[in-house]
Write a structure and sequence with these properties.
alpha/beta; 119 residues; 5 helices
Length: 119
């Protein structure tokens, strides 16, 4: 398996960059690091990034993946950007509630709802 293969599907929707994960399980440290680096380069490519991360098809997230999301959130804020999360599986959302990350992130039921929320 090529280590440099993208773990993300990225598309532009207007001025919003929408990111989806290719993997159903985001557990592997090396992949999480690659995902973090890839998202960081997306953030750095825009003066005021508008980023939507969709969790369609994601069944499992590790705590390291949550840590990466927090880092991504901080980077977006530093760049005066906006971050939205969407399509989170109810079991994964439960982890967001337990860790109070549902208060940190703006989470939407669907990517369409999240796209409408950008200013």
């Amino acid at each position: 398996m090529a280590t440099e293969a993208s773990r993300l599907r990225v598309k532009k929707v207007g001025d919003v960059t929408q990111v989806e994960f290719i993997d159903r399980n985001i557990l592997d440290e090396a992949n999480i690091q690659l995902i973090g680096e890839e998202i960081t380069s997306i953030i750095e490519a825009s003066p005021r990034p508008k980023l939507l991360i969709s969790f369609t098809n994601v069944d499992h997230l590790s705590s390291a993946a949550l840590g990466t999301l927090i880092t991504v959130n901080n980077r977006v804020k530093q760049a005066s950007g906006q971050l939205r999360l969407s399509d989170i599986d109810p079991q994964i959302y439960e982890v967001f509630v337990i860790t109070k990350l549902n208060k940190l992130f703006e989470i939407h039921e669907t990517a369409a709802d999240a796209l409408k929320s950008f200013k």
